[in-house]
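Please fill in the sequence for the structure shown.

STRUCTURE ENCODING:
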């Protein structure tokens, strides 16, 4: 009887996990606006992994560094200006190794970059798309041992989907920007042609 209850719990947890991953996949597939996507990601993670500080840092290939693109709980000056090298801090370590980093007590880890004195635990997970580094999802908590191995595994699953979605949103933004530029150039070309036609009429 006890074994049957355990099996039922496992099936229920597995079903809830599948439902959750389906929700994440649907949300990331339907959202091409990068700002809205990042906001949705923060909210959906908060539902399953409580945190006090949240950040999504995106990787810049030219500078080989991470820059904070979206955050909750971080000081304004940190959110606006923070850039992290791949060999710097817990987030930089996650990016450099392409592996999640779970720190149960940041006071015992020399890699920790002090975002807030009260922080005690951190979980940083890289976002990858076809093996290429997209960025890092970073969670911090004021509670010791706030994050578990299950949290690490779940956030790793989420990060794989989020990395693809962010790449798609950034590509969409670049295409939109190029299309706007082409429309402006086409408009200027028409105006220039009209000016030339007027000049020709005036010189006749």
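FILLED IN BY: designer on duty
SEQUENCE:
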């Amino acid at each position: 009887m006890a074994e049957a209850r355990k099996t039922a719990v496992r099936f229920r947890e597995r079903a809830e996990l599948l439902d959750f991953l389906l929700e994440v996949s649907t949300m990331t597939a339907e959202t091409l606006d990068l700002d809205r996507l990042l906001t949705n990601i923060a909210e959906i993670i908060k539902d399953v992994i409580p945190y006090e500080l949240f950040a999504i840092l995106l990787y810049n290939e030219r500078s080989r560094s991470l820059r904070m693109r979206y955050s909750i709980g971080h000081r304004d000056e940190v959110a606006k200006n923070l850039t992290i090298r791949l060999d710097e801090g817990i987030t930089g370590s996650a990016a450099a190794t392409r592996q999640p980093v779970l720190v149960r007590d940041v006071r015992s880890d020399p890699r920790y970059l002090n975002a807030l004195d009260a922080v005690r635990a951190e979980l940083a997970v890289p976002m990858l798309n076809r093996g290429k580094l997209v960025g890092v999802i970073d969670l911090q908590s004021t509670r010791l041992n706030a994050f578990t191995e299950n949290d690490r595994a779940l956030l790793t699953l989420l990060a794989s989907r989020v990395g693809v979605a962010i790449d798609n949103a950034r590509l969409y933004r670049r295409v939109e920007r190029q299309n706007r530029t082409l429309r402006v150039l086409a408009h200027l070309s028409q105006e220039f042609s009209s000016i030339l036609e007027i000049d020709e009429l005036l010189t006749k």
